[in-house]
Design brief:
Layout lengths: L3 E6 L12 H11 L3 E6 L6 H6 L7 E4 L2 E4 L1 H9 L10 H31 L6 H22 L10 H15 L7 H11 L2 H22 L3
Parallel strand pairs: 1-2
Antiparallel strand pairs: 1-3, 3-4
């Protein structure tokens, strides 16, 4: 049995499927060809056993032998230590990867996630609150555009930083937020064209489809 176990929800409603964050970890594991198994916890019952691994009641977490690691950034950096396919081996490449991991999660996702949630929930777009959220994500994309126009990947080679940044931007693209940022859109397309992403996405969708079938078969 593999030492690596990825834990996600046993089921989620259809709208977030394909974007649940265990996909980021699946993607990294597939990219590095690391053997792993998938476990699940109930979506509707996040009790003490769940909170012992993920104190916010979210997913995913990864167990590696005796270690239990939560937060996708921490998990991907951990996996980067296990494979040169996920993090360049040279000091400069490792430093660049680490800083872009934090940039994806702290500088870009903190702007993009409220924007995407507002889009998903159909919030009115003629309010001061929406203008603030929209301006914030546009500012971040304005800064990312020249970065991504000038390089294939964020570090010297494809890395966990690209998995995170591409997935963050992919959610913006879901709501057509990259229409005026072609370099960002091309970067997302380039990253998600990798076979490792296709496998991770397919596996996540199949996982939740199987959960639908199990639920529908209950008396």
């Amino acid at each position: 049995m593999p030492d690596l176990t990825l834990t996600t929800f046993d089921w989620v409603p259809p709208p977030p499927r394909g974007f649940v964050r265990d996909l980021r970890v699946r993607w990294a594991l597939e990219e590095a060809a690391l053997p792993y198994r998938v476990a699940s916890v109930p979506f509707d019952d996040r009790g003490p056993a769940h909170l012992a691994h993920q104190p916010f009641g979210q997913v995913p977490w990864l167990t590696d032998g005796g270690l239990s690691i939560f937060e996708t950034g921490a998990i991907l950096l951990h996996l980067g230590e296990r494979s040169d396919r996920l993090m360049p081996p040279d000091p400069r490449g490792r430093s660049e990867t680490t800083e872009w991991v934090f940039a994806a999660l702290n500088s870009v996702e903190m702007a993009s996630l409220p924007w995407a949630l507002s889009k998903f929930m159909g919030h009115p777009t003629d309010t001061a609150a929406w203008k603030f959220v929209d301006d914030f994500v546009k500012l971040r994309l304005k800064h990312m555009e020249p970065v991504l126009a000038g390089r294939e990947w964020l570090a010297s080679s494809f890395s966990v930083a690209d998995i995170l940044m591409a997935d963050v931007l992919r959610l913006v693209d879901r709501f057509d937020g990259l229409a005026e940022h072609p370099a960002c859109r091309d970067y997302v397309a380039r990253a998600t064209a990798r076979p490792s992403f296709a496998k991770a996405h397919q596996d996540q969708m199949a996982h939740f489809a199987a959960a639908d079938a199990a639920r529908n078969s209950r008396p």
